[in-house]
Amino acid sequence: ALADCPRLKEANFRGNQLKDKRLEKMVNGCQTKAILEYLRAGGRGKGKVESAREDVRKKKREKQQKKDSGDGEQDEVEEASKLLVKVLHVSENPAPLVVKVSPGVKDVRAFIVCCVLKGVNLKPGNALKRFLTMQTKLHEDICEKRTVATIATHDLQLVKAPLTYDVQPPDELKIMPLGRKEIKAKDLLRQLQLEAEEQRKQKKRQNVSGLHRYLQLLDGKDNYPCLVDAEGAVISFPPITNSEKTKIRKETRDLFLEVTSDTSLQICKDVMDTLILKIAELNRSALENREGSGSDTELDAHCGPGNTNLPLVLEQVRVVDTDGNLKVLYPSKTDLATVSSLLTVIR
């Protein structure tokens, strides 16, 4: 019973008449931790190795019992039905993507997490529309209307690496927002503000929709955060918009994913975990249903008939400082734990 007390730090067993001679020697010469480990293993000469063997035997017995009762088959079915994601480590990747962070972001929007997800299928039916709707819902829910984090998704083939997460003054930052012509950030915000006022007048209500809801998140900022590609073009302006330059289309197969926050790094990781799970769910749905659009020849060539559980490939992306020192690596060994009940991660 004492051995099962995890917070027990000190116990003095000296002076007790013990039948176990080895234990008697230990209480006179060993630390409490070693004694408790010996007791936990069962005493009487049983060491750690014997205890480990007993655990293995116990697990085998439990597995066999489950199998005999039919529970094992259910577990196997549940495991097979889980979504699959295979992690490609930086060390295995011949051309890993790197994001360099400039010191200026610290006071504006300090945290960023990125990764690459390959093998997505957005061709069938309304798969792309569902993908964009899913992103909007995540912004509403887990991102708390973009106040704690913002998601940006890009077509990897259109991303020119290496990337830099930087800050620029509002009258210098230029971007081609989704569905618009290239414009300075200062002018974009003014334009959105005017649109919001017009929207209020037309609908005769205080609330506004679309990008107009997020304008106040940049109030009082002297510099705005942005993700810049190798050609100097801004491909992301969080928390407002992505660029038309890296816009996702039906033909997009590989994604570059980015989550930024001014709150915490952990929030970025939690949002990214959820984003990957949701994309995997949508991908499974698109493969299973073909969304009523008939057979997709390219897809059939990749998957073969009826194979809807091929893993998406998740490539690690390193975020480094200007000297090349690692700040964040996603996904690390501990990431994706929050969604592990629904997602099988092959590392």
UniProtKB/TrEMBL annotation:
Residues 47-57 have a biased composition (Basic and acidic residues). It comes from Zosterops lateralis melanops. SMART domains: B3_4. One of its GO terms (molecular function) is phenylalanine-tRNA ligase activity. GO terms for biological process: phenylalanyl-tRNA aminoacylation. This is Leucine rich repeat containing 47. Residues 43-77 are annotated as: Disordered. It comes from the Eukaryota. Keywords: Coiled coil. Residues 182-209 form a coiled coil. Residues 108-284 form the B3/B4 tRNA-binding domain. PANTHER family: LEUCINE-RICH REPEAT-CONTAINING PROTEIN 47, PHENYLALANYL-TRNA SYNTHETASE BETA CHAIN AND LEUCINE-RICH REPEAT-CONTAINING PROTEIN 47.
